[in-house]
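Worked example (supplementary).
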Amino acid sequence: MSRNPGGEPGLWKRLFTLRSRLSRPTEIGLGVLAFVFLLAVWAIVVATSSIKPQYMPSLLSIGEALYSLFVDFNFAADIYISVVRVAIAFAIAAVMAIPIGILMGSYRVFGALGEPVIDLIRYLPVPALVPLTVIWLGIGEGSKIALLWMGTFFQLVLLIADDAKRVPQEYVETAYTLGAKQRHVLGLVILRSILPTMVDNLRITLGWCWSYVILAEIVASNEGIGQVIWASRRFGKTPEVMAGVLTIGLIGLLSDQLIRLASKKLFPYLR
Amino acid sequence: MTQHEASTDDANFLRIDHVSKWFGGADRHAGMQVIDDVSMTIEKGELAVFVGPSGCGKTTLMRIVGGLDQPTSGTVMLGGEAVKGPDRRKGVVFQSYSSFPWLNVLDNVKFGLRFRDGLSAREKDEIARHYVDLVGLVGFESFYVNKISGGMRQRLALARTLAADPDILLMDEPFGALDAQNREFLQVQLLDIRERERKTIVFVTHDVDEAVFLAERVFIFSARPATIIEEIRVSETLPAKRDLKVKDSEQFLHLRNRIQAVIRTQARRTEEEMLRVAARRR
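After joint prediction of all chains, the assembly is encoded as:
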């Protein structure tokens, strides 16, 4: 029985129809609902079970810990240093990966040279590289940047090379028959064509970069979000650990949404 | 240059000389021959149609003319110069939608103009708008490609190619993906545009009606490897200026049926050949 016969199917029905579209407010509402659900489950478990707060602190104590981190321990400085590390390493990785990836995807000679080596390095687990970066570059900023760079560059370059390879041959041939030379095709067609997927790939690898910065800071650092989390653990301050982890999640969510928004503005033709 | 020399140059504007093409090596066992010793000449300003069964190699020949593929043997001369690779002189309209999705209609038409020297920004704009108008896309200048219909996309591809001012226009089943009404509409429009722009056109299709309706001369291709079975001067039978009513005329139907019969035989040959190959593999 439908309340609006002949019209749009009802919301309830649309929610569970394969690939049906939802309005923006509905989508945001569902996102908020998931957060609320998670927090509610957390609160209920804390209130009703006998798990010690040392393992599962209350939401309130996590909030207090976050507040105290900022006010008493200058947490903002730690966030800043982590952000700067990620920004520098990621910028270097991206600036290198974009041209190299495009060349690898466009000229077989560069692809054949680069792919096997990069594939091998890409499969090396980043944590296993920590001792090497420390041996080579000590425990300063250099070794952290190098670790983040290794974790992102090799992934990114292959993603970009794959995208460049997938640019339709018709675009390339069309450009040639309109008078373009190779250098024009590289910039005006291949690079331009992969921009939207490239921004997507940057967004995804940026997330990986964040997990590596925490790793680097846990291993050897006197500041940064990772160091705060690790130090808090050593003193058994579980709420502070949770607050630190939560901060990373929020930064990730924020940067992800910002890039998505920019992507929408930059590539209006995708809609 | 004397009158006589000029006219022979024009008569041999496009010269395809003993062109053969093998894919995967010129060897009966390893490779596959798609074109077998094809020669022809096309006059300046002529509209020639290549018609033949699907997969016969007519598109490959067109691509060789455009410099997009290289012949295994033989040569192609355009306006007295050997074709070496793709460039602005050989404009191509592809079967699939090849306009750039990140550019709007006007900027797509302008794309080729940036490679032409000595044009001011204003001249480029004027040229682009002229061709947008020519193909009837006025009002859609700021639309992205994904917001216009399939027929409009092919008109855009035509405008974009013409704006680059090529010596020859190569069209590879450009209306193949369109519905019947749109296809006829674009056929008429193409004849109209040609009337005004006077370009040499090579048009590839497997649609016999389309071939007869558009062509001054039709080249009927055999099944793979492509040879030219027959060459028909349609302009000797049908009027130079054509509208859709021509399609109902007796002369049209006669030509159409004759070509259709040849192609049917060729298509059957292709199928039999495929069956033989499959049997040998087994």
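Two points are worth noting when inspecting this output. Chain A touches chain B at residues 168, 170-171, 173-181, 184, 188-189, 192-193, 195, 267-269 (CB under 8 Å). The longest helix of chain A spans residues 182-219.
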